[in-house]
Amino acid sequence: MAKTCAFKAEIRQMLDLVIHSLYSKKEIFLRELISNASDAIDRAKYLALTDKTIAPEAPEWGIVLEADPEAHTLTVSDNGVGMSAEEMEEALGTIAKSGSKAFAEALREGKETNIPELIGKFGVGFYAAFMVADSVTVESLRRGEGQRAARWSSVGDGAYTMDDGSRTEPGTSITLHLREDQTQFAEEWTLRDLVRRYSDFIAYPIRLRVAGKKEEDKKDEEKPLNTMVALWRRPKGEVKQEEYEAFYRQTLRGVGEPMRVLHIAAEGALEYRALLFIPKSVGMEMLMPGNRHGLSLYVRNVFIGDEIEELTPSWLRFLKGVVDSSDLPLNVSREMLQDDAIIRKIRADLTNRVLKALAEMAKEKPEDYDAFTAALGDFVKEGYHSDWENREKLTELLRFRNLKDGKYVGLRAYKDAMAEGQKAIYMLAAETEQAARQSPCLEQLKAKGYDVLFLTTPVDQFIAPEFQEYDKTPIVFADKGDLGLDGDEAKKTLEAAEKTLKPTIEAFAKQLEKTVKEVRLTTRLTDSPCCLVQDPAALSPAMRRMMEAMGQSVPEDKRILELNPEHPLIRRVAEEADEVRRGEAIDLLYGQACLAEGTLPPDPARFNALVAGLMGR
Ligand code: ADP
Ligand code: MG
After folding, report:
1. Where in the chain is the domain with CATH 3.30.230.80?
2. Does domain 3-217 have CATH number 3.30.930.10?
3. Distance from the CA of 289 to the CA of which of 53, 153, 340, 499 falls in 20 to 30 A?
4. 129 C-alpha to ligand 2 centroid (Å)
5. Separation between Cα atoms, residue 139 and residue 149, nearest integer Å
């Protein structure tokens, strides 16, 4: 009783693109099918731990490739968990995977050269078969009691057909009828080569049967094509960099080359092996803590699950890799992992090792660490904010762009390079490095030759309030409160100016009554007439705009306008007798102070009109 059903629209679109793609490395379809077969065996073994009906006969787990060079067919079979008719429909056609739409979009945007990466990223590996086949048939018998064989087939034209199947042994066989120009995938040597290249460390034997072979040539059919040794089980010194990289890309779906590889073999009280990869960069979605992430977990070579978030603190979610524990029971479930003492120990140990690796990188390969900071530095900052146990180490790993030479500088390096007599570490939070660099609040600091660290990423804004002091040196924000740089002399001059300029300060305060909470004199400025600052406890303007952009209501918090008593423009305002003119001058100066920190004047139209009027005169 065959029935024909239409694919979900997004799957149809994606298939269409895959079929017509000019992508040259179509061979990756094989890696995808083998990896699915291996996943299916992993799953069967896992389910068998708690369900006796899954694998009562304890089979020899394995994958078989059957090639027929004459008929142009290739079949990939496994004795894994199999699929029921419903599961097949779900996995291969009706329930649109969230990935397929995004995949189609990315493909259409012309990033076609990245097909393997896209396939991995969006989890649509099965459909890669249609790059080389004009028809695909899946025969499956689900493991467990009372299951019936089912068949799925499609020519990739928008519909698929479901029917009763003919498989008698549990597992799945996927048969590809190869396109005329892709028949090399039914040739023995092509297949041997591809398995060795892409699937060598698949943990189950992959055997090859070639139709029409002479009896005497058949003896090596029993020998697996792959070596099967999990990379992390091999001694560190014996694994080549290329092998790590192949594993990173093919098994972990990493993009490009990893930045660092950590091959861990922990022995003693805690026994585990791990392969961790620090990527060169991550997608935007990673910045959202809700995004699924985490390492894969194996127990003595048996796959337990991927995206195990318990294995790493959230801030390390950029890591890719696997952990293989010898101490956990085989039947450990995801729920049990949540407060398992061994998992907690592994997490602490892994975190320490990553922190150590980063500290080493910062010390020995500062250029690499700069690249790491540029790509992933926000994660370290998130760690600084959230991982209290490791705060000290994380503090040393923080980097910020500095005023002096626009480089990444850490707190230790900043402190070591402090000028003679400098008593504080200076920071400034702003939306961009450029805005920070141009802030009038830095004038006095620049004049003194002091360096300033710029906090310019969204995470920087978030952690800014946590910077109070470092190694007993206070941290002062350049746009908050008193910079503490004035000697007695300067203080006296300021007090005197406060007396003479009292009416001017009052005029400013009255004119800007609704916009600022205070007007006062400052020594912070050397070149600019005025600037906007705030109380030490207030949210930075950059943080405020970020919160507003996220739709949060932010309590109103007026700024403080500081005037430079030495500046000729301030003196001119003081001398202006015409009240209207004085009001206009104050509005202009205030608007400029806003622009100086990257915000618009409160009434841009009026500001424009005033500037035009001024130019007219
Ligand atoms: P992914 O492997 O990322 O889930 P695929 O497109 O490769 O995506 O596979 C889709 C789904 O089809 C799998 O998740 C699995 O449920 C099912 N599947 C594919 N191949 C097999 C197989 N050999 N045995 C059992 N299930 C399979
Ligand atoms: Mg897959």
Report:
1. 231-369
2. no
3. 340
4. 11
5. 7
